TrEMBL record:
GO molecular function: branched-chain-amino-acid transaminase activity
InterPro entries: Aminotrans_IV (IPR001544), Aminotransferase-like (IPR036038), B_amino_transII (IPR005786), BCAT-like_C (IPR043132), BCAT-like_N (IPR043131), BCAT_family (IPR033939)
Key words of the record: Aminotransferase, Pyridoxal phosphate, Transferase
Cofactor: pyridoxal 5'-phosphate
Species in which this protein is naturally found: Balneicella halophila
Top-level taxonomy: Bacteria, Pseudomonadati, Bacteroidota, Bacteroidia, Bacteroidales
Family assignment from sequence similarity: Belongs to the class-IV pyridoxal-phosphate-dependent aminotransferase family.
Function: Acts on leucine, isoleucine and valine.
Entry protein name: branched-chain-amino-acid transaminase
Pfam families: Aminotran_4 (PF01063)
Amino acid sequence: MQEINWSELSFGYMPTDVNVRCEFKDGKWGDVYTCEDPYINVHMAATGLHYGQEAFEGMKAFQGKDGKVRVFRMDENFKRLKNSCEGILMADLPWDKFENAIMTVIKENKRFIPPYGHGASLYIRPLIFGSGAQVGVKPSSEYMFVVFVTPVGPYFKEGFKPTSLMITREFDRAAPQGTGTLKVGGNYAASLRSGQLAKENGYSAVLFLDAKEKKYIDECGPANFFGIKNNTYITPKSPSILPSITNMSLQVLAKELGMEVEVRPIPVEELDTFEEVGACGTAAVISPVGSIMDYENKKEYKYGTEAGEKSTLLYEKLKRIQNGEEEDKWDWTFLV
Ligand code: PLP
Ligand code: COI
């Protein structure tokens, strides 16, 4: 195997040894099996290809200083996947198949788990899609579940250095009563053009506003938004945001660190009042935000060139739990 430079990894795809699959046919899920082929033979009329019947998840496994490998909160990813499946009428997978697939794919790709201390982790990507043929707009009667892994570094190239965001009212990611709370492929398709616009202008992601009134902070590219002021961690309440498991965890840790937590609508103007701002998610971990450009209003909000004190405390605490260096009081980690 080619040597992997663990410290230089970015958030990208690298081939590994095997992926794991399970298929739903004739009203039931089959056995979980491993596969070396990264390609999938799919029917051209599969609903996943035409009507976006597809949902995915993202989680990470970490190798600790003690050599043990821990997966962070995979039970929550399972619940969210189940919710996504229900939301777009796909067959949902039982926990035992999910757990078996995740554990198998990690064990079978052991040599790709980044060692402790390089800031890298093993990204786990489960997905389910409608694999049966339909031409009318209706759910498939067949589904395929696949899990692959790939070693990754930071999602935003700055890592734990502040990155910059852009607000634009030109695009929406999801509608209030649409699929924004589900982790379905269509939401990501809807975010591609605005994401490209942000990158072309030198920003790492779009900070979306609520689609109905364009007054409140919504999703933060492929992550959730949080702001900190007066010892309070504040994150948006919205019907079009993906409930981030990282965000959920940070709210618990913020309380542990003696902070208040508020989940409520955040008006755009409130950006002027935050001491620290960040994006959080499995891929993004915590990405401190140094500046936000409101594109249409030509107004820039600035938060400094270094990660803030509270964001750093939260980041360190989260990482220590993920790496097994701090007591996991809430049973968040699953040993492989
Ligand atoms: N929001 C979006 C749109 C995402 O794609 C993700 C990534 O999964 C998140 C938020 C963060 O969620 P989590 O912390 O569960 O990874
Ligand atoms: C994640 O954080 O796991 C994501 O899914 C974000 C993105 C890579 C789609």
